[in-house]
Specification:
- The chain has 383 residues and is of the alpha+beta class.
- It contains eleven helices and 21 strands.
- A hairpin with a 6-residue loop joins strand 7 and strand 8.
- The chain is globular, with a radius of gyration of 21 Å.
């Protein structure tokens, strides 16, 4: 099964010689990013920076930097394991005979581990320490200034929780977060993202939007935050499906949201309608900088954390990067679903050089002239 939290995964990687502790002081301004980018591109180990300049906590990097480490974190031997599970659930045939009935009930029984479960605060390590108001100091968290023309320091692996103000459906997303000051974070929510839609709905209703950002989450939760799920599919249900067990959740202290009980750090706040600040530039996956634009600015009212927390982040830049294994997992996991939606597809590949969404190579069993054009239009209509 998948690891319950980040630190248990790091301990396992260290036992196997796949994690390197860096005890010397490192600067989050350009230095950490350069080291991680070089190590990642050479296929090196996960890194734990124990002495980050200006920070009160260690920084874990390159944790998912190889296919082996990502698979290990999810408790898998190959990406095909999840593909087969998804394919099995999607098969529409009716059960035949005793064996078929038993298999059908087996599928239903296997889903019992999927829904997340709520735990009490005293069973949630992430709420061992609680800071409010002026106690909050985001400068004590190791944010990265990775590329020379970046517009500031960023948290690149904070899992953002919101919910639709009307339907109550929650969303878990992975967005870059620019640290503006000790209590303010810029939310890079593009117009097509679910969290941006929640923000727009709240603004239209004249309401504040509650937001919680979790760092150092259980690996299956971190992966689920990157998965291209429909808006009505709960990422925590999917995380439980991938992990093979229910994800433990706890109520936030100051906002009506739930976060992973085994996370390392959580930021809580309310997003006021119309509160915007310039965000960026940011050195992106393409090898170019995305320009500075106004994005919602979140004021942090509360921080909860473990007694001895650590933060996890990634370097964003020209591939190959740590995004590679995460993107390959999505490519393989969702092939059975894609084949249900577009049955003509035999296989597909999303090259890392294309950022996993800017380029797709699709294989079909061509049966008639212009068959490929039909599939192209079907794919375009679903992207």
């Amino acid at each position: 099964m998948a690891y319950d939290d980040l630190r248990s995964l790091l301990r396992a990687l260290e036992r196997e010689g796949d994690l390197k502790r860096i005890k010397a002081e490192v600067d989050p301004y350009l230095e950490v990013g350069e080291i991680v980018d070089r190590v990642q591109k050479s296929g090196g180990p996960a890194l734990l920076f124990e002495n980050v300049k200006g920070s009160a906590m260690p920084l874990a990097m390159n944790v998912f930097g190889t296919d082996r480490r990502l698979l290990k974190s999810l408790g898998l031997k190959s990406y095909g394991e999840i593909s087969e599970k998804i394919g099995g659930l999607l098969r529409p045939e009716l059960p035949h005979g005793f064996v078929g009935v038993r298999e059908a009930f087996g599928k239903l029984g296997a889903m019992a581990h999927v829904p997340p479960k709520k735990v009490k605060p005293d069973h949630a390590p992430v709420q061992e320490v609680v800071l409010h108001g002026d106690e909050v100091d985001l400068d004590r968290l190791p944010a990265l200034f990775t590329w020379p023309q970046d517009g500031g320091s960023f948290f690149n692996l904070g899992l953002t929780h919101t919910k639709d103000p009307e339907s109550g459906i929650r969303n878990l997303g992975l967005y870059r977060l620019q640290r503006h000051d000790k209590r303010t974070i810029g939310m890079h929510w593009q117009i097509h993202k679910d969290s941006r839609n929640h923000y727009q709905v709240a603004a239209r209703r004249g309401e504040r939007l509650p937001v919680a950002i979790a760092f150092g989450c259980p690996p299956a939760v971190t992966y689920a935050s990157t998965a291209p799920l429909p808006g009505d599919i709960d990422e925590y249900m999917f995380a439980g499906f991938v992990a093979g067990k229910r994800i433990e959740m706890v109520d936030c202290k100051t906002v009506p949201l739930q976060v992973p009980a085994n996370a390392e750090v959580v930021l809580e706040g309310w997003l006021e309608p119309g509160e915007m600040l310039p965000e960026g530039p940011f050195g992106d996956h393409t090898g170019f900088y995305t320009p500075q634009e106004p994005f919602p600015a979140l004021t942090i009212d509360c921080v909860t954390m473990r007694k001895r927390p650590l933060l996890q982040s990634i370097v964003v830049g020209r591939p190959p990067t740590e995004d590679g294994p995460l993107g390959r997992a999505t490519e393989r996991f969702f092939l059975p679903l894609l084949k249900i939606i577009v049955p003509d597809i035999v296989d597909y590949h999303l090259p890392e050089a294309g950022g996993f969404h800017n380029c797709a190579i699709v294989s079909i069993d061509k049966k008639y002239p212009k068959h490929a054009q039909k599939v192209m239009h079907a794919v375009w209509g679903r992207t």
